[in-house]
């Protein structure tokens, strides 16, 4: 019975409505400006009948050439391309215009055509997925990623109908955002998600929604530890953090974070050399807020950018994702295994930016620097594997150590200034913060931890 149902479904006529397609085409030839109402909704592929596709292409081409659109010009265009007889001749074109009196409801009808087109595409994708799934040796992950990409390609059909926001609406949104920032500032709160480092908050405004932040450094500079600091401070401020670790287990990461919070030696905590006082400290942390921080750890092997996107959307809908941190971009599994490495990283980088934009959250991703950055101040061109990381990022921060001083270089900052400044990092790189007042004023008299302490370039 199940097999029979499948056969019946395959034998059905694909979703379509030829009458509505003809009504839309007729409306386009009655009113020249009507094409602008549907150009963001329909393409030639949206139409089910080949003849209808050709007529729409003719209308669109005339519009692109700023020529009049009516029964005569469309007929001539098709005739010049030797397509008039293919669509049914002049009589067919005349019949299209006779079916409607005006273009009053053309947008409504266009959206029906769009919906039917999407239904047909979903059926086609489903059939292709079934065929791929029957192939011997098919990998489940590849099948899932392929299906996701096919569905994602349909998003343009929905996004195309968005003609943008008016200046007045955007201005009102801006005023509301500024008002929210002012209220938080008056309450002593950080407008963005706090970094836990005052001088970095001042430079960046905190981690802001839609921003992709890249933390890039050479190995053993403390990228992961710094990311853990950012995760802890965000969580302690009440924000849900989704931490994706592709090279360390969550429990190992938590040992580093716990070491910084408890003051217990990182190596002792790693190797189990814990005395009674240390256990008492851990018990206190367990019962305190630190033991219940709103952090979701994920170390799933073989994570792809699309998988991270799916998990983020799911957690976001559940109200459990305000900040995403990924350690690190070079270990994210590419979708296209045959593409060159630069193209793979470009695809991953763009997907991470899409997560930040579509989910309206900040995304922090760690990255490696190439060997040029060894023993020198890092620069943007030293980002490893792809220039698209630099292009997609809103903020690029490069930690480095000079003369035993831990430095942060802001090499890119779309919403603030660029510059370099020193922060505090303990010897084990488990605690980060502003340089303490005594040490800071000793080398920088008459200064506080503010924007004036950043070396701008």
Short descriptors:
457 residues; alpha/beta; DNAb Helicase, Chain A; Rossmann fold; 2 domains; nine-stranded mixed β-sheet; 20 helices; elongated; disordered N terminus
Record the strand order, biggest sheet.
Answer: 3-2-4-5-1-6-7-8-9
- Number of H- or I-type helical stretches: 20
How would you spell out the order of helices and strands?
HHHHHHHHHHHHEHEHHHEHEHEHEEEEH
The Cα radius of gyration reads: 29 Å
Strand content: 5-15%
The span between the termini is 73 Å
Task: Please state the structural category.
Answer: alpha/beta
CATH homologous superfamily label of the largest domain:
P-loop containing nucleotide triphosphate hydrolases
Identify the quaternary structure here.
single chain
The total tally of domains equals 2
CATH level 1 name of the largest domain: Alpha Beta
What is the 3D shape? elongated
At the fold tier of CATH, the topology name of the largest domain is Rossmann fold
């Amino acid at each position: 019975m199940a097999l029979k149902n499948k056969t019946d479904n395959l034998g059905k006529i694909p979703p379509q409505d030829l009458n509505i397609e003809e009504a839309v085409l007729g409306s386009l030839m009655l009113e020249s400006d009507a094409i602008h109402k549907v150009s963001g909704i329909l393409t030639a592929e949206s139409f089910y009948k080949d003849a209808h596709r050709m007529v729409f292409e003719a209308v669109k081409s005339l519009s692109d050439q700023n020529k009049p659109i009516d029964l005569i010009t469309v007929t001539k265009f098709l005739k010049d391309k030797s397509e008039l007889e293919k669509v049914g001749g002049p009589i067919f074109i005349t019949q299209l215009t006779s079916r409607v009196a005006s273009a009053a409801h053309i947008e409504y009808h266009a959206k029906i055509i769009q919906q039917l087109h999407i239904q047909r595409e979903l059926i086609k994708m489903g059939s292709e997925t079934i065929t791929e799934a029957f192939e011997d040796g098919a990998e489940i992950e590849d099948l899932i990623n392929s299906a996701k990409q096919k569905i994602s390609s349909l998003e343009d059909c929905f996004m195309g109908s968005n003609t943008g926001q008016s200046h007045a609406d955007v201005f009102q949104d801006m005023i509301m955002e500024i008002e929210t920032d002012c209220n938080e500032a008056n309450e002593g709160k950080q407008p963005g998600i706090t970094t836990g480092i005052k001088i970095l908050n001042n430079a960046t405004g905190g981690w802001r929604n839609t921003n992709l932040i890249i933390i890039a450094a050479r190995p053993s500079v403390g990228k992961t530890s710094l990311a853990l600091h950012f995760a802890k401070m965000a969580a302690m401020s009440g924000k849900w953090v989704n931490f994706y670790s592709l090279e360390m287990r969550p429990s190992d990461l938590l040992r580093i974070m716990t070491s910084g919070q408890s003051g217990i030696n990182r190596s002792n905590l790693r190797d189990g050399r814990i005395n009674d006082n240390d256990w008492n400290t851990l018990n206190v942390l367990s019962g305190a807020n630190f033991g219940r921080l709103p952090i979701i750890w994920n170390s799933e092997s073989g994570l792809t950018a699309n998988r991270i996107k799916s998990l983020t959307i799911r957690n976001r809908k559940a109200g459990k994702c305000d900040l995403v941190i990924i350690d690190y971009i070079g270990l994210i599994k590419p979708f296209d295994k045959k593409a060159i490495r630069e193209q793979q990283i470009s695809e991953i980088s763009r997907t991470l930016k899409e997560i930040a934009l579509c989910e309206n959250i900040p995304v922090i991703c760690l990255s490696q620097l190439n060997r040029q950055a060894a023993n020198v101040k890092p620069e943007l061109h030293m980002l490893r594997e792809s220039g698209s990381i630099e292009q997609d990022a809103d903020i690029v921060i490069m930690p480095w150590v000079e003369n035993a001083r831990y430095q942060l270089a802001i090499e890119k900052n779309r919403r603030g200034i660029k510059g370099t400044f020193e922060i505090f990092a303990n010897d084990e790189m488990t605690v980060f913060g502003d340089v303490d007042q005594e040490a800071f004023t000793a080398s920088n008299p008459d200064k506080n931890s503010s924007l004036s302490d950043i070396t701008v370039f």
